[in-house]
Write a structure and sequence with these properties.
five-stranded mixed β-sheet; 40% helix; D-Maltodextrin-Binding Protein, domain 2; alpha/beta; 393 residues
């Protein structure tokens, strides 16, 4: 495979990376493509750094290795990073979001048994749960993470309280690669997870698609490039080079279906996602109306660390009782999301910047989120939880 990064722009002098070999954690998911392809194609070398990719198998292990310093940075759940910042379920750590790695790319899948009862959406699921009361179990990948928030939002939009005192619903944490097999074995009634594991369940007929995450929130934030704030403070040039390399890679991924095809072939390797090539092609190349595709670049819109994206996760963590009081939403987002560093990296990589740090989105229930009134937004949901149980993951 020829490298589009052959002409280097190595930093010199005061801009030279403080650390040239960076240990980067990733999960075996389709949206690890920017990290993997940056290493494979040499976009890292172009900016004078070397990515040493370290495969992880659970988000809790990723969290522990990132906070302990075993990893310099990682592909991370946006909500996980904000949960760490706020000390939800563990000690508080000052974290940094360097950039967004993708948009879209997750899905909510229901079991064959649920589908056989005629359920294809949230309203039908709510009707079934009223008609056939029992404990319904749904899987997500981490208590403060993206998939938990999409799942809870989708259930609540259908009138299903995911944390109801009656305990008709039960939420469990499952590593993404084990979702399809647990659904097939009948251990769960549904789950929310990232590609390719949600699509695997659909393609292998162990489950049916109920909603893509892009239907819950069109062009929502996906994984983030996360690091500890102390690492960023000590290695700003290294972090800037890392973001610039990944911006180049994201632009390459979105440039053509041929590039996506090449990425699917690489990710299929046991060293990375270790999944069937056709499954990965369906995630990265195929266009389907029921699966809004992974968006890696979007002319820079998909990679920008929008402050409102981080604030949204805080509103949902407040909504579900993970935060006992409203935080300084904008203040926290300004501390976590490294917008200034991203702007410098974007200039280095020749990527256009948006004119604002907040964006407006309309979610599946018609609510508009623009970050202007986070306290009011968090309090506006009829279904919510204010008395949390202890978290573990």
């Amino acid at each position: 495979m020829s490298s589009p990064a052959a002409n280097g722009v190595h930093s010199t002098g005061s801009d030279r990376p403080e650390k040239t070999e960076l240990r980067i954690g990733f999960m075996p998911l389709a949206d690890c493509a920017p990290l993997v392809m940056a290493s494979v194609l040499g976009f890292d070398d172009k900016y004078g750094i070397k990515l040493v990719l370290e495969k992880q198998h659970s988000w809790s292990a990723m969290r522990d290795r990132l906070t302990s310093g075993e990893l310099d940075a990682a592909q991370a759940l946006y909500g996980l990073l904000y949960g760490l910042q706020m000390g939800i379920g563990s000690g508080a750590h000052d974290m940094a979001v360097l950039m967004n790695l993708n948009q879209n790319g997750q899905a909510i899948v229901l079991s064959r048994a649920i589908a056989a009862a005629g359920v294809r959406d949230g309203a039908q699921l709510a009707a079934l749960m009223r008609e056939q009361p029992r404990r319904y179990t749904f899987g997500h990948t981490f208590p403060t993470g993206n998939h938990a928030m999409w799942l809870c939002y989708w259930l609540a939009a259908a009138g299903i309280d995911p944390l109801a005192p009656t305990r008709q619903t039960r939420l469990v944490t499952v590593p993404p690669g084990q979702m399809a097999s647990n659904l097939e074995a009948g251990h769960m009634d549904g789950f929310c997870a990232g590609e390719p594991w949600s699509r695997r369940a659909v393609m292998e007929a162990s489950g049916v698609l109920a909603a893509s995450s892009g239907q819950v929130w069109p062009d929502h934030p996906g994984k983030a490039l996360g690091a500890r704030q102390d690492f960023v403070a000590r290695h700003p040039n290294s972090c800037r080079a890392l973001v610039a390399a990944l911006l180049d890679t994201a632009r390459w991924l979105d440039a053509s279906p041929t590039n996506r095809e090449a990425a699917a072939e690489v990710l299929a390797s046991p060293a990375y996602v270790h999944a069937d090539i056709d499954l990965l092609r369906s995630c990265l190349v195929a266009r389907r109306t029921d699966f809004p595709g992974l968006r890696f670049f979007g002319d820079g819109e998909a990679t920008f660390p929008w402050l409102s994206d981080g604030m949204w996760f805080l509103t949902q963590q407040r909504r579900w009782g993970l935060l006992r009081a409203d935080p300084d939403y904008l203040g926290v987002a300004r501390r976590v999301n490294q917008v200034a560093l991203y702007r410098e990296a974007a200039l280095l990589a020749g990527v256009d910047l948006p004119g604002a740090e907040l964006r407006s989105s309309t979610l599946m229930d018609g609510r508009v989120w623009d970050g202007s009134d986070p306290v009011g937004y968090a309090a506006s949901f009829e279904i919510h939880q204010r008395d949390p149980e202890p978290l573990s993951a």
